[in-house]
Design the sequence.
């Protein structure tokens, strides 16, 4: 094994399952870990003690490495980080915030730290803060996203040129060919969100998963750019936001339409019209609910097949 | 040579120079053709007799294959197609319109026809109309763009799965690694715009080229979505559009700000603040003005190097 990402995390395949609100609890993270990828518990939708329970259950369910993703704008951040250290979590992915604040604290506890970025500026900041790797997440990714709207195709080579630490590509990775493409762009590994959001072990509501499977090309849209940009699946709620945005609604008006707990309502409780449904553009290629381990193995098999095909091309 | 695109066009490298308004006249198209790629004359910014002159000069400047790109919404479309047939142009790329209207007419004249699409729906239409190949152009591409905002990373595999004719990837192709990535996603060739827009032989104004070279990440934006979406480089004009859009300006108001001949003003006449500057996201990676032939050779050399690197990866 000569890959920087498999070595960094001590995993078999350089495939990371994204930490996703309302989708990635201990069931999904441990399923991916047991299959040889890096599973991530998404702390963004968990109260601190709920996170502790998920970490404990994940440790019981797998002997392999797993990580916790922490959005740095989380209100209980101090408590969350305390729990992560107490529970002996070995790998932390931070996102949505300044990597300078927590990286050195976590590193001093022997924790491997990866920061999620949407531009080279923050990739450089993460490297300077001592991060072990960065996730370069493109415009096509689901959920919260960068203001520059730089796509995976453009972002990955730019981040690759900017930093010396390993780069993980995210956004639009839904096939083995896309994993190979990410590596051709300079990534050492990939982070896969949407495909695992609709896996059997995802804790998302079945109605959300089925809505995603029905999504066609163009059915997601980067929304709420005047607040924090987020890629949403079109539904009544997203249409209301789009209409307000087209009419020039300000941040306050958008916040009022958004209200509270929309993501939980949509993704966890299954209100697929009034809830906030976060998913990537690649959802248009997802056709069935499968076990996470099978998704991982299929991706890897496809990757190897594509690698052979490309290697065999004659010019 | 076992590549569908090199065989289709009778060229050496599966690299196509995009037909770009105000950039790609006979000088650029013939330079690319002479270097072994497919050069394209962009008819979108030419009066019919100007196009005829460019075709004639291109024929004098190269014995290799070249093409003409025709936006199907062009007002003088009948006259343009007449000139293309009269001048014996062998390859036509059509864009911005319904492929069903002109494909069979051109094909009956023995012309190879390629249609540019931003979604699978139009890729299927193009194939049904008899097109020989499609260009799948992602959200990150410069100039006019699709409403679905699907990125190259997501669009290419979807189009690849949908059609049987060869697929050319466009949007974000600025390095040999990106060419390899496009092929990993299922493309048979690539179309490169931005890199050739700032080549020595591009007919764009030097001030436009230099402005592009200074562009940083996030300096382009998909604008005018209420008219026809177009990716623009930020300047005073683009900022005025962005401000109006944020305030909810309707199509009529935007048309008034746009006025007439903005692209010519910016890209050809060099008014880099009040003109419309069309360029892709990958412009942030462009650092110098080089001859088109050198750009092409460098891309291909990088592609071969990356191909070797990927083939040598051990898992």
Sequence:
């Amino acid at each position: 094994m000569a890959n920087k990402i498999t070595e960094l995390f001590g995993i078999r395949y350089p495939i990371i399952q994204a930490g996703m609100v309302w989708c990635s609890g201990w069931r999904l993270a441990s399923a991916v870990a047991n299959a040889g990828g890096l599973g991530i518990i998404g702390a963004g939708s968990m109260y601190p003690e709920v996170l502790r329970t998920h970490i404990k259950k994940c440790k019981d369910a797998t002997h392999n490495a797993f990580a916790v993703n922490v959005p740095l704008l989380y209100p209980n951040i101090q408590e969350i980080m305390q729990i992560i250290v107490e529970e002996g979590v070995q790998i932390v992915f931070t996102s949505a915030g300044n990597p300078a604040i927590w990286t050195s604290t976590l590193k001093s506890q022997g924790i491997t730290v990866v920061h999620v970025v949407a531009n080279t500026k923050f990739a450089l900041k993460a490297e300077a803060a001592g991060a072990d790797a960065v996730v370069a997440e493109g415009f096509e990714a689901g959920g919260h996203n960068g203001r520059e709207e730089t796509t995976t195709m453009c972002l990955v080579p730019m981040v690759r040129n900017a930093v010396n630490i390993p780069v993980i590509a995210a956004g639009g990775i839904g096939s083995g060919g896309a994993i190979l493409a990410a590596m051709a762009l300079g990534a050492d590994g990939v982070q896969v969100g949407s495909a695992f959001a609709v896996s059997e072990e995802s804790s998302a509501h079945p109605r959300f998963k089925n809505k995603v499977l029905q999504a066609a090309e163009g059915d997601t849209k980067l929304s709420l750019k005047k607040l924090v940009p987020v890629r949403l699946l079109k539904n009544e709620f997203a249409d209301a936001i789009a209409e307000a945005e087209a009419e020039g609604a300000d941040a306050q008006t958008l916040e009022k339409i958004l209200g509270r707990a929309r993501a939980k309502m949509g993704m966890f409780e299954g209100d697929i019209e009034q809830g906030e449904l976060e998913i990537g553009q690649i959802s248009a290629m997802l056709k069935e609910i499968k076990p996470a381990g099978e998704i991982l193995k299929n991706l890897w098999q496809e990757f190897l097949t594509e690698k052979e095909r490309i290697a065999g091309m004659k010019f």
